[in-house]
Sequence to fold (88 residues):
Amino acid sequence: MPEPSEATCLFAILRRASTENPPPEGQKDDFNYVATWMKHGNGADEVEIEEWVVTMWLNRAISKYRAVYGRGTPEMRALFPWAGGQVA
Fold:
């Protein structure tokens, strides 16, 4: 999927917030670790994925789709009512 023309999707917002508000020295939260693990299989043999993380990924994916294409799909709307309408 292409990148949106404006950084309005959830992942871009999280990335910008992480850059603007770095964690204290020595701490690093990689909010993309499990997604990278699933795509590339690097690191641990098994990773526990919490439900809230899956919900966040779905929100990230839908927000990027909407940022790129200007609206969601009926399937997206079934999961998250905000996802179906046209982007203002």
